[in-house]
Amino acid sequence: MEVDLDRCHSGRAVRPRKRFRRDGASAAARAVLFVFGLIATTPSSHAESFARPDVVRFGSDTEEMTQALSTLCTAQRLRRIDPPFLTEVRTRQLQIDCDGFLFLGQHRHVEFVFRDDRLVMVWLMVTKQETQRMIEAMTAAFGTPSHRNGQYVSFESSRTAWRFEPAEILFYAPELDADMAPDFD
C-alpha cells in the first residue's frame, strides 16, 4: 500500500489517502477467480455417461469372469444359489459377489449371476437417493423407457432396467428377454 501526503491550500498536511496497487492484491483475486472457474467447468464423476460396464460379457463362464473381475473388485466370492431363482437351470445357478466395483464414481456391490456356468444377469447395487439421477442417465443413454411400473423402469432394447426396491440396476442377456418381459409389464 502506498500512502501520499496531500497538502491543502494552506500547506498543512491532511489525512493520508490509501492507494491500492494493481499488482499483488488484484492478481491474487484474479488467480482465485480463475481456479474457481476451472473447477466449475470441469466435468465431475457424476457427468460420466451411463453404460453397461465393459467387463460384463454375457455368455462368459465363472472362471473367465473371476479372472476379469480380479482387479475390479476389492473382494469377490463365488457361491451357489440353491434353490435357483432363474428359469431353465439344468445343472446349477452360481453368483459372483463383487465388492468395491467402481461405477459412475462410486464403489459398489455387484452380483454376477450364472445359469449353467454362463453369465446371464448382473445386478448393480445403488442407493435410493440416486434414483432420479440414475434414471435420467439411463434415459439419456438409451432413450425413452420401454416400460415403467411400480417395480421397474426398463429399457428393453438395451436389456437394462432400474429396480426401485431394492435400488439396483439390472443388465441381462438376450436369452432372458422372455423371462424379464412379465416383470416390466
Percent helix: 10-25%
Give the end-to-end Cα distance, rounded to a whole number of Å. 74 Å
Strand order of the largest sheet: 3-4-5-6-10-9-8-7
Q: Major sheet: size, sense and barrel closure?
A: 8 strands, antiparallel
- Provide the low-confidence segments as ranges: 1-10, 16-23, 25-47
Coarse structural class: alpha+beta
Question: Overall pLDDT, averaged?
Answer: 83
The count of DSSP E runs of length 2 or more, i.e. the number of strands, is 10
Order of helices and strands: EEHHEEEEHEEEEH
Gross morphology is: globular
- Total of helices: 4
**How large is the radius of gyration?**
29 Å
- Measured by DSSP, the beta-strand proportion falls in 25-35%
Descriptive overview:
This protein is α+β, with helices and mostly antiparallel strands and 185 residues long. The protein is 25% helix and 30% strand. The protein is globular, with a radius of gyration of 29 Å.
In a nutshell, what does this entry contain?
The chain has 185 residues and is an alpha+beta fold. It is built from 4 helices and 10 strands, in the order ββααββββαββββα.
Q: Which key features would you list for this structure?
A:
alpha+beta, single chain, 185 residues, 4 helices, eight-stranded antiparallel beta sheet
Element layout with pairings:
Blueprint: E1 2-4, E2 17-19, H1 24-41, H2 62-69, E3 75-80, E4 93-103, E5 106-115, E6 118-125, H3 131-142, E7 147-148, E8 152-155, E9 160-163, E10 168-172, H4 177-184
